[in-house]
Amino acid sequence: MGWLDFIFKKKDKAEFVQLYEEYSKEIIPAQRPISQLSFIVLDTETTGLNPEKAEMVSFGAVKITRSKIQVESAKEHYFDTSAKNQEALKVHGILYPQNPTKPEVFAKELLPFLHNHILVGHHIGFDLKVLGKFLAPFGLKKITNPVLDTQYLATRLEKGYHYDVGMGKPGEYTLDSLCERYGIQLDDRHTAAGDAFLTAQLLLKLLKKAEKIGIADYRTLMR
Amino acid sequence: MSNVIVNRVKEFLKNYPPFSFLTSTSLEEVAKAVDIKFYGEGEMLFERGEPAQDCFFILKEGSVSLYDLKEGRENIIEVCDEGDVFGVLALLGKRPYILNAKASEDALVYAVPVAIFEKLVQENSRVSLYFAAGFASGQVVIRNDLSQSQKARSVFNQGSEDNGLLIFTGQSDFNYSKEVLTCPESTGIQEAAFLMSKKGVGSIVIVNEHRHPLGILTDKDLRNRLVAAGLPYETPVVQLMSTPVMTKSPSADFSDLYLTMVKNRLHHLIFTEDGSSKSPVTGILSDHDILLSQGNSPAVLINALMNTWEVPAMAKIRNRAEYLLKYYLENEVSMDFVANIVSEINDIIIQKAVQISQKKLEELYPTIPAVKFCFVSLGSEGREEQLLRTDLDNALIFEDVPEAEFQSTQQYFLDLGAEVIEILLSCGFHPCPAKMMANNPKWCQPISIWKKYFSDWILTPNQEALMNATIFFDFRAIYGQKQLVQTLTDHIYNEIKGKSIFLNFLAKNALLNPPPLGFFRNFILEKSGEQKDKFDIKLRAMMPLADIARILVLSHKVVGINNTFKRFEKLAELEPNHEELLREAGKAYEILMRVRAIEGLKSQNSGRFISPENIGKLQRQLLKNTFYPIDELQKIIRVRYQLDYFGS
After folding, report:
1. With the CA atoms of B516, B519, B520 and B523 taken in that order, what torsion angle do they form, in degrees rounded to the nearest 10?
2. Could you tell me which residue ranges the Cyclic nucleotide-binding domain spans (chain B) (predicted)?
3. A158, A169 contact by CB (below 8 A)
4. What integer pLDDT is reported at residue B74 of this predicted model?
């Protein structure tokens, strides 16, 4: 190892991260019908609203393949957080998580799980930032999966492409009001896995709606 | 680790029988295995005659109606409500559905895999009793509340009595044989077999002097109880027949007959004058008759395929074909026929897929290149041997175009290939892991490049070239300009003519897989990995035969025969001195195809890996017998192509 390498010590890239990057190179064909696509619907709970500072408290996700929610694939993890953030946890009612998952164990399990699937969430941008920060220590530069936001999909289907959520009624496209509108029972709200499950059910209904108006394949879904 | 999502499913299930009888641990196991699906109003969950899925359903939200068609009109039999369990025929030996199920409102449905539930049914007597009661009354829906069920029925099934079977309404249209082959109890087994073979039937009914049925003997019994048991041919039929027999009156309700067969796992049901076994035989109803009555004959399926442009409908028909395949395999229908039917169905699906894709691209492309092309199948589908929907291997050949147009032309055909592949995946085929498919730029090329590919493989037979050769030399035109394929075939024979050394390389490659039996006549099993202690029937037994058939066919310049077993038959004509061995090799290949397909259907995979201890002594012996020609042929190849002197 040269002395320069020593100064600019590269972050070691874990093996599972390399594998993830290898898999990500595969692109989903534009023509693939919606019924043949695989999704991972996910949600995180954090100690705050600023993704730069917030710590991940819990993570929940479930896989959808061939338009079916695979209950077997459901994931739920809780994490230890630093003391200064403990205060914020009272909101979630999880003060001291039982059986917290170690970050490395989580990362090793998560990345192979994500391989090449479309990631789905409500306001998923926030969750991806939090996850990205969590996974950075293992050498992951970026989560490269294709991404679909259920809030965006719902507004697109109801109001069209160029609708600005900010212009509408406040709260019209929150997970709560969408679930109410689409007849999904609000259970286990504000747990990561519970919200991921609700979002997954919402996605199934939105996709069905999309197919009815001719959004039939990957290309048109992700446009 | 329990988690919120599994718990949510569990909380729902535990309110409804039969799930309410389960312990918390068992229930959790079931909840974990559930798939959740949403059906929009008007969407079908399953249709009459379709093979049962590997799950049954419980309705979470919305409503699902079960109906049959009466003179083209929907006749609603049941409307399912939250918590109702339906589609339970899947639990009974995977028989096809007898009703249509449609979401009459948006419906959220939990699908419970049969495999996990079967285990619980055995463990928990209350659960099995619950289902048994349901089946006994012929219910299609297992109601969560009886009084509600009575109510629902009286609303939706006015006029019909509540004690009958609800699955079928009235006499159904089915045909059965009224001419039954019978013999007296004193008959010897060989004579009985002779009578069956003379009449061309698979069963014989043993009767007493009043023609009252005593027992039945089938093809299978001859194999399992006579040959396998090593009994003499003089054994009296009464010693081998199945007895007592189930009898019914031909005027019985079809649903009654059907359920009797299903519940008792019968392949044949005997009709007598008054329905009891103490009355003369009047007819016999077989599995096959039922299959036909459900519209699962090859002609019906092919006709249905020709008449649809909907991918989901094509997928369903392909699933039905699998049911047909299973029936054929169980009943030892000739492999030639089976392979022909399945290849025909696959071919039509591919042809349709190309046409559908062309139509779709018409809208997307302002100008479609006026270039002729041919969509070809490779590998096992190219050889018309793909019984199960295993990996796709295909390619696209188009005419040569001026260089300026090459890029746009190739782009169009790549898009076409991609559309076709997506349709085929939707129909249940699997992608080729090595990406030998028409959506790969390398395998979507003009004829001049294809000629060059083959020339290169023939002139420089390195490891990769030989690997490609084993797949690409079995190409077969499926759709488009067949002349392109003919041109390519001519080119190949021209190239090989001068370079016979290529065949030596190909021959050497064919012997890379050692004979399937070890020194002690044991199966050579996989030594490690996921398939440890399993026998790789494709690599060890089928590929060596397919490879040898290919080399010999190439050396004799035979054109247009792709089936490995037909190739061997042709070769037997061409090489009279090895006639017997070559014919045996063909037979061996047929047996291997059958064994693999049965294994694949049984374990819902490619059937490639077989556990020798799980297949029974007879099958094991049968398999071993197929290896003998492999060994002999490899010896011949070694001598003919002088491989012992051929440097590596």
Report:
1. -20
2. 18-125
3. no
4. 85
Q: Domain spanning B4-156: which CATH class is it, in words?
A: mainly beta
C-alpha distances out from residue B40 to A212, B51, B107, B404, B549, Å: 10, 22, 6, 49, 51
- What kind of architecture, by CATH, is found in domain B182-293? Roll (3.10)
Domain ranges of chain B: 4-156, 182-293, 296-448+473-484, 500-648
Q: Provide the chain B residues 396-415 that lie in CB contact (below 8 A) with chain A.
A: 415
**Contact residues, chain A, for B36 at CB < 8 Å:** 68-69, 71, 200-201, 204
Instruction: Compare CB distances from B426 to A33, A74, A212 and report the shortest one's residue.
Output: A33
Q: For the segment A90-109, what is each residue's pLDDT rounded down to a tens digit?
A: 555 555 566 789 999 999 99
Count of CB atoms situated within 10 Å of the CB of A196:
28
Residue A8 has pLDDT above 60, yes or no: no
Q: Residue B416's pLDDT is what? A: 96
What is the pLDDT at residue A85? Answer: 58
Residue B334 CA neighbour count, 13 Å, CB half: 7
C-alpha gyration radius of chain B: 28
Mean pLDDT of B174-181: 77
* Alpha carbon of B324: minimum distance to chain A alpha carbons (Å): 24
Between these two residues, B160 and A157, which has the higher pLDDT value? Answer: A157
Name the residue type at position A51: P
Residues of B in contact with A186 (CB under 8 A): none
State how far residue B312 is from chain A, nearest Cα, in angstroms.
10
Q: Do B106 and A205 touch (CB under 8 A)?
A: yes
Indicate the residue type of B526.
Answer: E
Nearest CA in chain B to A182: B106
Pair B80, B65: CB distance under 8 Å = yes
Q: Is A14 on the interface with B (CB under 8 A)?
A: no
| A75 interfacial to chain B (CB closer than 8 Å) | yes
pLDDT at B381: 92
CA of B120 vs chain A CAs: smallest distance (Å): 18
For the segment B107-153, what is each residue's pLDDT rounded down to a tens digit? 999 999 888 877 777 777 777 666 666 554 445 555 444 333 333 33
Query: Which among B1, B4, B31 has CB closest to A191?
Result: B4
Cβ-defined contacts of B354-359 (< 8 Å, 24+): B354/B416, B354/B420, B354/B478, B354/B479, B354/B480, B355/B479, B356/B309, B356/B311, B356/B419, B356/B423, B357/B416, B357/B419, B357/B420, B357/B423, B358/B416
**CB contact B36 to A (< 8 Å):** yes
Q: What is the mean pLDDT of residues B34-63?
A: 88
Output the average pLDDT for chain B: 83
Q: Does domain A15-221 have CATH number 3.90.320.10?
A: no
DSSP B1: -
**Between these two residues, B188 and B298, which has the higher pLDDT value?**
B188
Mean pLDDT of all residues in A111-133: 93
How is domain B296-448+473-484 classified at the architecture level of CATH?
2-Layer Sandwich (3.30)
For chain A, the straight-line distance linking the first and the last C-alpha, in angstroms and rounded, comes to 47
Q: What is the pLDDT of residue B142?
A: 53
Per-residue confidence (pLDDT) for residue B428, from 0 to 100? 92
Q: Which of residues 109-128 of B touch A (CB under 8 A)?
A: 111
Closest Cα to residue B17, out of B204, B160, B145? B145
Residue A67 near chain B (CB below 8 Å): yes
**Taking CA atoms, what residue in B is nearest to A26?**
B435
Cα distance between residue B576 and residue B252, in whole Å: 57
What is the ipTM for the molecules in this complex? 0.79
A74 shares contact with chain B (CB less than 8 Å): yes
Q: Which A residues, 106 through 135, put their C-beta within 8 Å of a C-beta on chain B?
A: none
Among the listed residues B277, B221, B225, B222, the one whose alpha carbon sits nearest the alpha carbon of residue B246? B277
Q: How many CB atoms neighbour CB B432 within 10 A?
A: 19
> Residue B36 and residue A69: Cβ atoms within 8 Å?
yes
